[in-house]
């Protein structure tokens, strides 16, 4: 019944597209499974592939690497892509309403069993790669992988792969016999090993102590053989490897350990994905601890072109609902501060637990906190990612206890129903996908917040206390006058509300543990931009603008004051415009839309226009002595080098690992095949000292990576 309905839906969609009939909200292009550059309307389900479902026992590893009774959590358990296919086909995943799956890194991993202090360890998690152009046999072969993609797509589900180009596998330089010596293969051909690395594929700087960003990038993360991205073989290898997966239809990439790879290389890498045949949504993992706010993390999210997992959000939700160490007032403070810190807040990937944290559900505790944290996440800004088994209230502190085999596939749990009920709202109501967030009522236990986009509104109330109910008076909302029933249908003790013509909500009592979602979806007549994806691109790239009220007839898109119409518009629908980035000055010109009848939209301010194709160049400057507290920065004649504005200079540069003070270095994403002019500056945050002499010049490579070294000019 369900799958028949789905088929009818896509038939209706193609028919109505062909006939030019306007579509109901649930069938908008911005919400389609084909929209690979916008995940704001999606709900991601994170699967540790080995731990979800074993659909093919024939591919299970033999011998020491396998735990048949699933008692040894560091060994393979047998989960695979066929198992995920089975769980799509039997309705477990589609029934929950999730619209994207994030699966373990799919690439070939080492197969050896590694002993640490006498304990066996394996690559069941997928983070110990050997060949990024082959599959992990325990998960399946390329036929299985293609089947997974095709089955997912046929069920309106996207597939996100984990990808970890920071490292291969554990290695010990002084002991080539340890594990597989970090070996890296190119589709079966050995490129090099960690202890025999004549091609310079790896860093050999020891392990990081995590003391600085630089230390974490250029030294090994634990004992993992650290990739040297300032190497032409490596750069070309990863670009062709990711293309292979994208060609198969992958819809998104979760980049592992982005704090530990040169930022310039990552920016040029994702810009090549965005400019290639298959631009997709990307998000990185940069771990933040409880209450940690990190300016470098924020800068990465705003400038790299990649989005990030929202650790600030996750840690706060855990404090408020799981550990009860902070209040609902603190929660709103974080919702508000993150909205001002992060330029692309609707692209941040939100979550309440994952494979690197204690599971959210506390053993022996009630389940309401989990259900409320899910409700919050499903209705908040950002793309929700739900960790497998959270809907089954799985427990487990720390790695590997947080990665047990999926315990059951019960479609009747309250958490499963919460996801099932709320996930579709992300597609039907743009206030949930794209809206701003406003506090409407708060005390230590209760938060009532509103999401608003155009005239669409969602109002969400959560009382985390399971013993106290609260009278709610003086509540205002943007909902039009009327009576609204709880979208959750009272599943979490929510009530309906009545709204007067001024937006005043009639007083009511929010029950203990009460959680309700009230919403109104407007049919929008004025244009409103919700998302621009990707958030970075060069002239000629196709960019997707999602929102509402663009109208059925093509109008004009503006990049700053530069108008794009006619052949610069690839497609124009009421909820989605595809446009070619025009030849404008690189930077952030602001993107806006004017309908064919001349009504202007809001401006999306953070789209970053690049000068051209990007390559990574390592800039080194020798003899740049500074006073304590003063750092060296790079500035030059292109937007990527700050267009001569010292406030936009690149850096602070590094001076400890690859080269040492008074030499400074930095890996930068710059336009390919261009003659750059640049200088270095010294700055202590207030006083800037420019280098003397003429500008340095350097012509960047047309592809691959480059290095330029100069002496500081007094
Ligand atoms: C972060 C991943 O999430 C974690 O599970 C993994 O062990 C490390 N990166 C190294 O790949
Ligand atoms: C910007 C100029 O364009 C550049 O050539 C010069 O070196 C610096 N300012 C410092 O004066
Ligand atoms: Ca299997
Ligand atoms: Ca690294």
Automatic annotation (TrEMBL):
GO terms for molecular function: alpha-amylase activity; metal ion binding; starch binding. It comes from the Bacteria. Residues 1-27 form the signal peptide. Keywords: Calcium, Metal-binding, Signal. SUPFAM superfamilies: (Trans)glycosidases, E set domains, Glycosyl hydrolase domain, Starch-binding domain-like. Its cofactor is Ca(2+). Pfam families: Alpha-amylase, Alpha-amylase_C, CBM_20, TIG. InterPro entries: A-amylase/branching_C (IPR006048), A-amylase_C (IPR031319), Alpha_amylase (IPR006046), Carb-bd-like_fold (IPR013784), CBM20 (IPR002044), GH (IPR017853), GH13_cat_dom (IPR006047), Glyco_hydro_b (IPR013780). One of its GO terms (biological process) is carbohydrate metabolic process. This is Alpha-amylase. It comes from Paenibacillus oralis.
């Amino acid at each position: 019944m369900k799958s028949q309905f789905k088929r009818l839906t896509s038939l209706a969609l193609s028919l109505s597209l062909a006939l030019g009939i306007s579509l109901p909200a649930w069938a908008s292009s911005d919400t389609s499974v084909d929209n690979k550059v916008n995940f704001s309307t999606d709900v991601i389900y994170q699967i540790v592939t080995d731990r979800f479902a074993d659909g093919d026992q024939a591919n299970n590893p033999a011998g020491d690497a396998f735990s048949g009774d699933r008692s040894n959590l560091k060994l393979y358990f047998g989960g695979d892509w066929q198992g995920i296919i089975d769980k799509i086909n039997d309705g477990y995943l589609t029934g929950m309403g999730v619209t994207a799956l994030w699966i373990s890194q799919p690439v070939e991993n080492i197969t050896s069993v590694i002993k640490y202090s006498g304990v066996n360890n394996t690559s069941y998690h997928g983070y110990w790669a050997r060949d990024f152009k082959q599959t992990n046999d325990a998960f399946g072969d390329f036929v299985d992988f293609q089947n997974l993609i095709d089955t997912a797509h046929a069920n309106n589900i996207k597939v996100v792969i984990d990808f970890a180009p920071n490292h291969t596998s554990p290695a010990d330089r002084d002991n080539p016999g340890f594990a597989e010596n970090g070996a890296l293969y190119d589709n079966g051909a050995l490129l090099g090993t960690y202890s025999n690395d004549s091609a310079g594929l790896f860093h050999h700087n020891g392990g990081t102590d995590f003391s600085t960003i630089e230390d974490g990038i250029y030294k090994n993360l634990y004992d993992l053989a650290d990739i040297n991205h300032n190497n032409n073989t490596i750069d070309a290898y990863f670009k062709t490897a990711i293309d292979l997966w994208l060609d198969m239809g992958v819809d998104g990439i979760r980049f592992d350990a982005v704090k530990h790879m040169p930022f310039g290389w990552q920016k040029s890498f994702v810009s090549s994905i965005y400019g290639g045949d298959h631009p997709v949504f990307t998000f990185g993992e940069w771990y933040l601890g409880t209450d940690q706010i990190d300016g470098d993390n924020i800068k990465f999210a705003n400038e790299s072109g990649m989005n990030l997992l929202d650790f600030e959000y996750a840690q706060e939700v855990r404090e408020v609902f799981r550990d009860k160490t902070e209040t609902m007032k603190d929660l709103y403070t974080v919702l508000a501060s993150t909205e001002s810190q992060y330029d692309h807040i609707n692209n941040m990937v939100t979550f309440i637990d994952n494979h690197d944290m204690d599971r959210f559900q506390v053993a022996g505790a009630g389940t309401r906190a989990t259900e409320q944290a899910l409700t919050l996440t499903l209705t908040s800004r950002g793309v929700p990612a739900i960790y497998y088994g959270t809907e089954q209230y799985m427990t487990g502190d720390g790695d590997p206890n947080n990665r047990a085999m999926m315990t059951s596939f019960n479609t009747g749990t309250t958490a499963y129903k919460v996801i099932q009920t709320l996930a579709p709202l992300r597609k039907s109501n743009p206030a949930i996908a794209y809206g701003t967030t406003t506090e409407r009522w708060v005390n230590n236990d209760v938060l009532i917040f509103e999401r608003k986009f155009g005239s669409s509104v969602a109002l969400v109330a959560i009382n985390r206390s399971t013993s106290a109910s609260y009278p709610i008076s003086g509540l205002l909302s943007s909902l039009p006058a009327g009576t609204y029933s709880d979208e959750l249908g009272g599943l979490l003790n929510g009530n309906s509300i009545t709204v007067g013509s001024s937006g005043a909500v009639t007083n009511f009592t929010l029950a203990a543990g009460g959680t309700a979602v009230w919403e109104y979806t407007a049919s929008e007549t004025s244009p409103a931009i919700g998302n621009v994806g990707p958030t970075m691109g060069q002239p000629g790239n196709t960019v997707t603008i999602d929102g509402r009220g663009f109208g059925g007839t093509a109008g004009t898109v503006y990049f700053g004051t530069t108008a794009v119409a006619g052949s610069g518009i690839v497609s124009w629908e009421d909820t989605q415009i595809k446009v070619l980035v025009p030849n404008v000055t690189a930077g952030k010109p602001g993107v806006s839309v004017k309908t064919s009848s001349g009504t202007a939209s809001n401006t999306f301010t953070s789209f970053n226009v690049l000068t051209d194709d990007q390559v990574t160049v390592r800039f080194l400057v020798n003899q740049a002595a500074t006073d304590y507290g003063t750092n060296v920065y790079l500035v030059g004649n292109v937007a990527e080098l700050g267009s001569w504005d010292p406030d936009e200079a690149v850096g602070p540069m590094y001076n400890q690992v690859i080269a040492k003070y008074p030499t400074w270095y930095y890996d930068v994403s710059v336009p390919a095949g261009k003659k750059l002019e640049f200088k270095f500056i010294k700055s202590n945050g207030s006083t800037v000292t420019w280098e003397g002499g003429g500008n340095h010049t350097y012509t960047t490579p047309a592809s691959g990576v480059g290095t330029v070294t100069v002496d500081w000019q007094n």
